[in-house]
Amino acid sequence: MAAAIRVARHHEGLTGTNPSVACVLARDDGAGFYVVGSGITALGGRPHAEPIALAEAGELAKGATAYVTLEPCAHHGRTPPCAQTLIDAGVARVVTAVVDPDDRVNSLGHKMLSDAGIVISTGCLADEATEGLAAYLNRKINNRSYVTLKLALSGDGYLGVKAKGQVAITGPLAKSQTYLLRARHHAILVGAGTAVEDDPELTCRLDGLEQRSPIRIILDPNGCVPLTAKLFQTAKQTKTLVVVPNTMDHERRKYLLDLGCEIFPCEMQNGKVALPELLEDLASIGILSVMVEGGAALAKSLLDENLVDELVLFENPKLIRVANAEMIASPITSKIAGEKFQAKESLILGEDRMTRYTR
Ligand code: AOF
Ligand code: ZN
Prior knowledge:
Elements: H1 2-8, E1 22-28, E2 33-40, H2 49-57, E3 65-70, H3 82-88, E4 93-98, H4 108-115, E5 119-121, H5 126-132, H6 134-142, E6 146-153, E7 158-161, H7 172-184, E8 187-191, H8 192-198, E9 215-219, H9 230-233, E10 240-244, H10 250-259, E11 262-265, E12 268-269, E13 272-273, H11 275-284, E14 289-292, H12 296-304, E15 310-315, E16 327-329, H13 334-340, E17 342-349, E18 352-358
Parallel strand pairs: 3-4, 4-5, 6-14, 6-15, 8-9, 8-14, 9-10, 10-11
Antiparallel strand pairs: 1-2, 1-3, 7-16, 12-13, 15-18, 17-18
Helix pairs in contact: 3-4
The structure holds ligand AOF and zinc ion (ZN).
């Protein structure tokens, strides 16, 4: 199962509204277990993992054990249910990590398998598998996009200096780790302030992973981001959604569309973008996970509204306070994060520490 969970990570963020599931088939002919096939939900979401693994195993699937990170489906889509495909292939045993909450499945896949006389065990490495399926499971439960908030804190607890543009807080290893996080999400989200002050590109600049740059989303309800911003100017290369209310200026809309941006209408509340509704609307178009990269006000709103599912804190010991400048304080410290969230992973990356928390 641990191997299957690692395999599944390869298509995270690339299977649309489908989860990235993996199936590993193994058998023991007397000399120990060996793998005869493995499959992962294909790009875009179909075919599912099981028929791919079964095709690779061929006749060797007969009598094998299937390790699947999510309960095999029980519904007829464009293909027959995976539970039936496993039965037809003569698999002897099925081990799964997580029950599929989809209404069409929801333990029916397990039932189909056990009714056919297949030995089932469920809940194997459930916590580990749940991490990779988090965006999918969250959509089924909360009907909104999964939110990862990433913050880089200086030793004195700041995110930056007001009106000073990007202040380098973390080192190169932390930067690579951020790119990797970007690649795993469907979209990156920033507020207008960050787009104006930092003029970021928000792409995945890791060798070999350039194609994994997610969709970029900019909240610009008041139209303050200059049309010369890199995010707008590169919209033809990397898909870019600009979130605006329906009252948006017609000229500006036309200009943004010409640059290749997509306009995403939002509801407003107290002069700000209504975040729960936005996350619901994003999930409805298949954006199931967003990584939030700034700024402080957006991060604070998400934390206050209890919308942060995962928090990634990068901390550098450096002090960045500048006399006579307005400093940008972090809306959360590692101490409070430790109380409000569950720490899942901590890495030392050069001079930086990265800690990943989930709800
Ligand atoms: C599996 N194996 O690899 C995946 C599953 O639209 P469809 O027909 O592709 O069905 C989507 C549903 O299939 C999705 O909501 C989830 O229940 C299941 N995903 N199931 O047996 C897989 N990706
Ligand atoms: Zn299936």
